[in-house]
Amino acid sequence: MKRLLILLLSAAITLTAFTGCVKGTQNSGDVNSADSEDVYVEPEPIYDPEFLTGLPKGEDYDNDSRVVAVMINNISACRPQRGISDAEVLVESKVEGGITRFMALFHDYTKVGGDIGPVRSGRDQFLQLAMPLNALYLHIGRSGVTQTYIDTYDYNDSDLDGQYKIFTEYDQKRINRGYSREHTAFTDPEKMTETFEKYKYETKFTYSSPWLDFVNYNDYENGIRELAGESAKEISVTHSNSYRTYFDYNEETGLYEMSQLGRNGVQATIDENNGKQLAFENVFILFSDITTYPYPGGNLDKNGNDKGNPNYQKVDYMTGCVGYYFSNGRVEKIRWSKGEAVSILKLTDWDENSLKVNCGKTYIGIVDLDEFYNFAYAGDEEQLPDEEIVVNSGEEVETGEDVTDYDMDVNVKG
What we know:
Blueprint: H1 2-12, E1 68-72, E2 89-94, E3 100-106, H2 124-130, E4 136-139, H3 144-152, E5 159-161, E6 169-171, H4 172-176, E7 185-186, H5 189-198, E8 234-240, E9 243-250, E10 255-262, E11 265-268, E12 270-271, E13 276-277, E14 279-280, E15 282-288, E16 290-292, E17 313-315, E18 321-327, E19 330-337, E20 346-349, E21 362-368, E22 376-378, E23 411-413
Parallel strand pairs: 1-4, 2-21, 4-5, 6-23, 15-21
Antiparallel strand pairs: 1-3, 2-3, 6-7, 8-9, 8-22, 9-10, 10-11, 10-14, 12-13, 15-18, 16-17, 18-19, 19-20
């Protein structure tokens, strides 16, 4: 049924092709005159973009800093998270039980202004996006499928599992406020550096070009082109019945501000370090056929008893699908593809030309194709209709860990 939907979408959606407006260099004077050798030709401006944002590099930009990808808990009981407003890229996708999880990408983790977390376990749908970036992948625990990818692609030297190489501390103050222990494991730049040095992780890597096809910031004011599609000021994304993500466009800042459905209704997504609401220049909603991996058995507790099928979610990266790109208050329908685990994510416009992405921070939502008809956006002349909000009032459970995530001796930060 999902494959049929993909075909129907491909046949039904059309998009007017756009052309980028690129500034040219004009010479003054007649180049054919006898004095042509004296004509001043203005040199092309230098284009030297940051790897994850496409913005011009500042004086303190570390060109050789290796990207770090940290798995962040997003079960509603763990919010608000810390450090996520410092991430240049935030990826959200459904995991087992209908909950979602984040992967935060930092080009220079040493600049994060405080804690990062709560750190949670790894899943392959995130690892497969981190691997082609040669990112250090940080988590506590992992699914068996994730470990299979790590072993198959020999990524062990770039994988930091807090089960065995501790880089977090429990926040006792948060525990005292009633948070479950698994929602209190945080890291910070100092702890990460200490762990990287202890286990000799390579933290330097030079990236030759940005990870997305960003516009040339010299050719567009503030590195922003106007998208060719219609107005889009509100976005509603359904990951599951009780996990939904929303974005509202702020005309003054030119950013999409993020909110999520939680136990107390829809609330702004806040970084507890600084009280800031998350906001992005780019919002990508990428639909995919998401199924579950077949269960081979072996999901055992510490007593050797089988806990049952964990229902690990399998994102179909091999086929690719359709999506939407939101930026600067407008939207374009796009296509995406990836391929095997070490292949980088590729984004194109509807005519399959490389997608020119605006400079800035990026949110990527990997969304089940089953939720396509629950996805909506609205522009200047309209407003999203009221939708039925089902708030999960029961105890949410994160399932499916092959190892007990937090059954370990770690420091407690008081």
